[in-house]
Protein 1
Amino acid sequence: MNPFYITTPIYYINAKPHIGHAYSTMVADAIARAHRLMGEDVYFLTGTDEHGQKVERAAQKAGKAPQQFADEVAAAFRTMCADLNISNSDFIRTTEPRHHRAAQALWERVRASGDIYKGDYEGWYCTVDEVFVPEKQLMDGRCPTCGGPVERLKEESYYFRLSKYQKPLLDLYASRPDFLQPAIRMNEIRTFVEAGLDDLSISRASFQWGISVPGDPAHVMYVWFDALTNYLTALGFGSEDTSRMDRYWPAVTHLMGKEIIRQHALYWPAFLMSAQLPLPQRIIGHGHWMMSGAKMSKSIGNVARYQDYTAAFGVDALRYFVMREMPLGQDANFSDEGVLNRYNADLANDLGNLVSRAMTMIHRYCDGVVPDARPGDTEKPEVALQNAIKQTVEGATHNFERYQISLALQDVWALIGHANRYVVEREPWKLAKQPDRRALLETALYNLADTVRVIAGLIDPVMPDTAARIRRMLGVTPQDWTSLREVQLKPGTRLGPTEPLFPRVEKTVEELRAMSDSQIDSHEGTPAAPAPAEDTRISIDEFMKVELRVAKVLEAEAVPKSKKLLKLKVDVGAEQRTIVAGIAEAYQPEQLVGRTVAIVFNLKPAKLMGIESNGMVLAASVDGGKPILVAFDEPVPPGARVR
Ligand code: ME8
């Protein structure tokens, strides 16, 4: 079996995990699971990065000793892995003795190569990113990466001869163009290295929370030297047992957010070259989840918590959303509307309906036993479906190999769409009423069941629990991808009991938010350090992007089966619109007709309970109370801008 080693970044423990950390971990998990299905011997590492000034300060703020603080927050990351069904082989913490040994062993090897010397560092440091920032890179006196404040350092420091590795690094990038993906990142890093490299300060003497420099305990290692080594520690580097090192190094894929590519694609290979160790096979930098127009970040505090989404939609739905929504390398927007829409459209409608139809009809028309495909197989719709299955297996597995999970899911959803259309085309419920067409009915149901089997196999890395549930309903066991197409469903297989996969969520985004607000407290096991006070105010330009306008309610009616929603027809001056508002508990429809309200005019349309809503009515929300509509002091004509 081919060895395949996949890593996530190890996360800083200055605050609890958010969707960004959950994302990298879920993607790495899907990649690990896909490679297991490809028949490879997978080792999958994640963990926590626990040293450095940022963590030391967060612990101080929380009034705790760093180790105690680290233990508490690291536990939240470990819990995240369990919560999200992550199949990691190991969870590494940089405060563990095995890691101290490994980092010191790497330091010794680098020193033995003559690449470490002592000097004085004077310059700027960003504690949020734990990076030294050259004066010329400052932006308005702040960190160019996170925009946070930098501080002046003047201390004795050990240096790594990074400058010596400029040429070897450029040779590496030239000889292995797929070393770093996507390609755009490779271009950036190459340009950066071409501009020349300064030696890198790799120790700090002004604080304590780190791994001591061998032979000089007044210094702790620069946290990135320490952190990057974790990828070797987990394989037993620096210990007696080198079996995992021999097996999995360097068959490694390092996955991370694009903001830490420099450390991985530049520092890390340079350290490894110096230590005379083989270089990683591949580095993949993914994009950022944005929220409210900025990168979701614990330092800024604009974060979404994975727990709110797994509670409302389930773990697999969150895994599906993030992996479908963010194409490799690109940024994507995280929004409640996005999650809700994808859940109802892709999971409840497309996938859920297909599986439920296939199962229900086999139970109903064939006593719950998979029928045999009969003559009729050669008819056009059957051939087209067979071809679609073949293409999807090839396309999706190829996309998984290229780490293009979003594209792989698109492939699978195209097949789901095809199968749903096949049902409509064959109309098995009509065939069931015509005994002379029994053979075609059985063929259609066999084909559907077999398509569902393939779909379960292909979604397995992203939605392992759903795949297992579908297999239980189908009465089959897991299959390697190598046999997914050749080994088909056996006629005569007895189905298991049918269960609903993704019941539609009929709640509005506002209702879901209200639910998650009330749950937040129960998730706060150990208190995280408060995020450093950052300026989250927006500029007038940003505010002006939101078009608030006056509207007059022309009609109002209750939305059937919803306690909270009202459907409004409003006059906004130049046009009339339908808006669905979550105010039914506070207002009767007849109270609203003729009333003037304020709305968000340029909101993208959203479907609520099947009704397209074009805008949002503004209301005050008081904790635990009902919404109170915004009103105007004097009559204002519909369409007037509010600013
Ligand atoms: O950088 N969108 O740790 P960290 C997508 N300890 N991914 C995000 C994200 C977002 N908005 N925010 C965070 C560190 N991530 C170092 C790493 S590795 C040897 C040391 C994910 O806690 C993404 O993977 O700041 C990003 O690279 C990582 O969390 C940063 O986590």
Protein 2
Amino acid sequence: MVFIALLAAGVTACSATDTPAAGVAPAPSAGVDGPGAPSGPARPARASPTAPADPSTPVGPSAPAGPSAARPLAGKVVVIDPGHNGGNAAHPEIINRLVNVVTERKACDTTGTQTDAGYPEHAFTFSVATGLARLLRREGAKVILTRSNDHGVGPCITQRARIGNRAHADAAISVHADGGPPSGIGFQVLVPGLVPGYNNRIIRPSRRLGLGIRTAYHRITGEPYSTYAGQRGIEVRTDLGGLNLSTVPKVFIECGNMRNAADAARLTSPAFRQRIVKGLAAGLTAFLRAPG
Ligand code: ZN
């Protein structure tokens, strides 16, 4: 089934931790999320039982400018990149195409990993991303997703970065879950390492964004720092197209290890994903409201 094709594609782990790029993405603006209406086989968890999305809430350019107590993120633009996509496994000819991420050439996109029980990373990332988008919009932010459903292919990691750049995002985050060693547990935030001539200007703000997300995520979800990657929940990377090619502050997060039984149980739980959403929103909000 799906993951047979996945193996055929030669991509299993969240190696693609990486981000984005494009070929088959929906039309450039179609990839930009609409009112968040996923239609794929894996519906995202409902993000906020207590506060359903309000379709009347103004978003984007028409939103009132300037923050207020009720809309502290008014005027801010956030790009959320749900890693991978549900249709990737069936289209290795597309996602295995090599793209240039400056430090190397790598696959346009990958299938991502899954839990032992078969809960796929792409469904997880889409669930978290749509819940996060809903929450941030309620706070007044304009939110753009790099894919609008969980059954398409791609976009390529390069295109995912481009979406954040074109939006002039105040912050961008790529959401993933890892396919690490089964004995390893925990999350890590991936921040950009310097790729001279490319991402110089985003190194410092991205690190600040990463630290804010690391701290809030740890506090709100209770998830431990990764026991097998990074240091105290932070890892500097120069192999990810999404970070190398970004011109806006950006980080990745590996929310947990799907190959670890305890993490897998948490990541599969809609209630835990809601805590993830709250943790990420708190980290992003802290960064966006901090001066400078
Ligand atoms: Zn991934």
Protein 3
Amino acid sequence: MTNASGPKLHSANPVRPSRDEAEQAVRTLLAWLGDDPSRPGLANTPKRVAASFEERFRGYHEDPAAELARTYEDVSGYADMVLLRDIRLESYCEHHIAPFTGVAHVAYLPNRRVVGLSKLARIVDIFARRLQVQESLTAQIGETIQSGLEPLGVAVLIRATHQCMTLSEVNQPGAVMETSHFTGVFRDEDRWRRRFLDAIGSATPA
Ligand code: ZN
């Protein structure tokens, strides 16, 4: 694992509960709400919720660094920014397990090596399928690409709306949170950072 700052993988936790225990926890929540978990309409709900959590949070069982294991050096002298824009993002905040959705823009300036574009989207997706806050998600994506690909710089910018902003008393459903993480030339040189920011534009997520 390269993401020392990232969330702990379950393998670091020797007492991972069983699937049955997870389903039982859902039954407990339903009863705590005041409902009857044994009524027919809810009979299969714990099973479905556990399966749904397994899918939404499968990033705990995937290794984002492994996506960068295969790189290409034959790029015919290409030496400009590589940008993947508008990567659809759906994640869950660690404070409320409430969804936040939006887009991620990821760019890097290659240092000879490049990587398949789908890999950048995969890295975003793997981290998104873990609980965290948007700030750490942004940094984890950037640092994983920086350490795995060793480019001259990485730029990551995420714009997302958070459901917990609707649920809580602040009630600001349209508010967009923007976070960015820059390394190398994107951090140190205005012209590269400007280039990235101009390329992605200021459109907010749909
Ligand atoms: Zn939240």
Protein 4
Amino acid sequence: MILRQRRTSDRPDFTIDQDWSSYTADEHAIWNELYARQRKLLVGRADDALLEGHDALNLGRGGIPNLEKISDELEKMTGWRVVSVPSLVPDDVFFRHLANRRFPAGAFIRTREELDYIEEPDIFHDVFGHVPLLTNPVFGDYMQAYGEGGLRALKFDRLKNLAALYWYTVEFGLIETPNGLRIYGAGISSSLKESIFALDDPSPNRIRFDLERVLRTNYRIDDFQESYFVIRSYDELFRATVDTDFAPLYDRLSDGKRHAPATVLAGDQLVHRGTGVYARERARAK
Ligand code: PHE
Ligand code: CO
């Protein structure tokens, strides 16, 4: 429904009412189709924490979730709530929501023509992809701390660096489990094609997570990633970020040195060295 997409907020925190009863039957059907397709694909590909989150919040039952109901459940588990916003919100507004354990989710759902790819985050990306991991206490704490860290990064004028951390963890992170590599990033888990590409394609690098390395790495917003970063656990991610004072890091990062998305550095610990074939072919086709 185009009108929903254009709805704006007149509140300082940019939230709107989800207005759940106004979704059409077709919009609920789109959610159900996306859920069924993506969930089936993710069994054996996504980290258990993500799948358990889907189940704990009953995201597969009955169309587009009612965020008030989801929030009441989620709040009992980890103190998080989900609020509706029209679409992307300004950085400081976004960080302040996270710092207060509110996850801002787009209210609209993609159309049938956009099932496989959509530029702006809709409710499927946000609620199917991001919200399940907020049932995990460690990941939930990471997200809150990220919000506080974002406000701090703005003061240091290092938002670009901190945005790369979000990108390569919250959106496109992989995790090593006893059963092999698994997806936890929402940008992957909500995407049909990238859920396959990120794990199976020989093209991208898969590099062990290193905080400063990630903070210096540029990323692609228009195509599959050329490198993914692999954590061993949410605890590892937590210790490397929440338990670290970024001030000395931000000092070093002010030299502005950045790595291209496909670059492999001498110090990288590689889980898989990418062939780069996919990115090269795409570049040639342009
Ligand atoms: N510990 C970081 C700081 O001192 C904040 C942060 C937490 C950043 C978690 C990212 C993720 O700024
Ligand atoms: Co997202």
